[in-house]
C-alpha cells in the first residue's frame, strides 16, 4: 500500500540541526526507492514521505532516542485502506497515537478524467454524472478556472448542447454544434439562465467532494499547502491557482512511466465524447 506521511520535528534549534544531519544518514541508508522530501522551516523540520508498506517509525524512533528533547509528530493517510492517523514520539516512545477511518466515497464514485501538462499545470479535471438517456451534468476545472456543466445530446443524432457557469449559480454560456463535424457555436446567454435549486445543490456537493479528493489551491492557508508546494518545487512544477494533490499526482506519475502528459481516466466509452466536447468548447474558450 502507498502511504503518504509527514513527520514534523520541533524543539531546540541547535538540536534540530544535529537531528537533521543524523536523519539524513538514516534515511539515505534505508530508503533507496521511496521518495522522501524535506520542507524545513525556521521552527521545525518537516519530512514528506511516499512509502510502500508502512510508515518508517523505526527510523524516526531511533533519531528520537538520540535526541530525547525533541518532539516528533507523524501524520499519515492511507487512501487504499481508508485510514488516517497521528502519532507523537518523544525519547523513542509513542506518547500519543490516534487513527480514524476516512470516507472513500471520493470523486472516483463517478466517471472522472484528470490531465496534467508536462509542466505540472492542470489541463482538465472533469467529473460527470449521467442524469438521463441524453443528459450529463458535471464539474470541470483547469489550472485557472472552473464551471458546472450540463450536456444534452439531442435525440440519437450528433447534435449537442453544452451549458457552463461562470462564477454564479446560472448558465452563462452555451455551445451548440455537431459531434461529427466538430464545429460548435458559442453564445453568451443574456440574461444568464438560473440553475434549479435542487440541481445546483447536487452539482455543488459533487464539485466540493471532487475538489476535496483531488485539488489544492494556491490561495489556501500556507500551513495547509506547505507540503504540496514543496513537492511541486521538487518536481520542478509550476504552482497555479488550482493544482492536483501530490498524493494523486504521485500515483499518476508512477502509472505514466515515460508518457507525458499525465492522465487519470475513469470514463466509460459512452463518456469519452463528453470529455472531447468539453475540450473543444469550454477549455478552448480562453485557451486554458
Structural write-up:
- By secondary structure, this protein is an alpha+beta fold.
- It has two domains: 2-101, 2-Layer Sandwich (Alpha-Beta Plaits); 107-285, no CATH class.
- 30% of the residues lie in helices and 40% in strands.
- It contains six helices and 16 strands.
- Helix 1 (13-30) runs antiparallel to helix 2.
- Residues 103-107 have low confidence and may be disordered.
Strand content: 35-45%
Radius of gyration: 23 Å
The structure class reads alpha+beta
Mean pLDDT: 85
Sum this structure up briefly.
With 288 residues, the protein is α+β, with helices and mostly antiparallel strands. Helices cover 30% and strands 40% of the residues.
Topology:
Elements: E1 2-10, H1 13-30, E2 35-38, E3 44-52, H2 57-66, E4 71-78, E5 83-90, E6 93-101, E7 112-116, E8 122-132, E9 135-141, E10 146-153, E11 159-165, E12 170-178, E13 183-194, H3 197-214, E14 215-217, H4 222-235, E15 242-244, H5 246-256, E16 262-265, H6 272-285
Antiparallel strand pairs: 1-3, 1-4, 2-3, 4-5, 5-6, 7-8, 7-16, 8-9, 9-10, 10-11, 11-12, 12-13, 14-15
Helix pairs in contact: 1-2
